[in-house]
TrEMBL record:
A Pfam family: Rv0428c_C
Protein's UniProt name: GNAT family N-acetyltransferase
Segments passing through the bilayer: none
Organism the protein comes from: Dactylosporangium aurantiacum
CDD domains assigned: NAT_SF
Domain of life (superkingdom): Bacteria
Amino acid sequence: MLGPQHVGSRVVVRRIVGHRGDRPVYSDILGRLVEAAETHLTVHARDGDVRVPTAEIHRAKPVPDRRRLTPTESLEVAAAAGWPAGERERLGDWLLRATGGWTMRGNSALVVGDPDLPLPAAVDAVTRWYQDRGLPPSMSVPLPLFHRVDAELDRRGWTPMPLTLVMTARLADLTAAADERVTLDTAPSPAWLASVAGRKGALPAAAVRVLTGVPQVRFASLRQATPHGAEGPLLATGRGCVADPEGRWLGLSLIGTEEHVRRQGLARRVIAALVAWGAEVGASDVYLQVEERNTGAVALYERLGLTTHHVYVTRRLLPPG
């Protein structure tokens, strides 16, 4: 039984909440112990203080403070910082994200650490959070680290989206030719946004807020050379940001070229410019996220020297039919 010496500790209390036939029904309360009296315990849980009479306590014990995040989880947190959702809320360590439906990264719960709830209750809480916002409940699950979460979602019928690779490299190991045609801007130009929209679909206002929502960010543009220095048409784009608190990670996204100039090494040159900028601001490593089925892009990144650090699957609870 917990006593005054445990006040302030993280605890779990299994409470008897009723009976089904001759068997008790339990509910778990996880939080900080704020009071330990002879007649009751008071636990500060996610929804406030819960007072549990001693007679209703089946079991109560301290639990360890939060463990340190693994390298996979730390990288996922860095990547989330580089793609800041319009609305964010914590469920324990899990990060709930909503951005009006624009991109899976901006509209899925990121599974890292501990949700401070039993897994079934945590999934229920995620489901309600997205349904309250008119969005399909979605969760991004790093694998194989959180295979239990993925198995629970699979059991409930959540649909898996295409597998995503998280690829990384040391900046010092990435080499590509510089190109004076590549310019780096602190905000996306109308032409940059139009080029990305042409490949990815229309960009709502929420998209621009995500793309510009970090202090250290650059938008790369590679234009066709023209006589007399006139501004030529835009051929390739990319975005780079350094958003994690340690300033370690350069995140690359929206690397792309116009269809008529593909396979000419332009994406390499955009990446080279962003890598050089990342090194200038103190980053030491680079990451990017790419769908496994995008074999052409995966092959390009592998040729540049990136390797798969881990994978994640996003699962969605889609309406019947």
